[in-house]
Specification:
The chain has 113 residues and is mostly helical. The chain has one domain. It is built from five helices and no strands. Helix 3 crosses helix 4. The chain is elongated.
Length: 113
């Protein structure tokens, strides 16, 4: 989990107009697609792209972050949740379970011998 804002100071988008990354109210169609592609291009060679992407995934940010849009990050969150669930299931399956058996009267005879 990324708890610090320090990485933001090195972001390629620093100082650029927010509309590029968040769009305008009512925006749609080819204008929206072009704006998003331009925003993603800014992110492409950004030195803090990975940290930015993690930040956005963890917080459910809107707009373009880490070179991804909201839909792409939602897909990544679902993929990570599936992987975590699969890992938990695999760990549970690999954990030996101790079978409990009721005491047997013969066990006492063995101990007495």
């Amino acid at each position: 989990m990324i708890a610090s804002f320090a990485w933001m100071g090195d972001a390629a988008c620093r100082g650029l107009h927010l509309v590029l990354f968040y769009g305008q109210e009512g925006e749609r169609g080819s204008w929206s697609e072009r704006r998003e592609l331009h925003a993603k291009a800014v992110c492409w060679n950004c030195p803090v792209r990975a940290a930015c992407l993690e930040w956005a995934i963890e917080r459910g940010e809107q707009g373009v972050w880490g070179g991804t849009n909201e839909e792409e990050r939602a897909k990544e969150r679902r993929r990570r949740q599936r992987r975590a669930a699969e890992a938990r299931a695999a760990a549970a399956a690999a954990t030996p379970t101790q079978q409990l058996t009721p005491p047997n009267d013969d066990d006492e005879d063995l101990e007495a011998s």
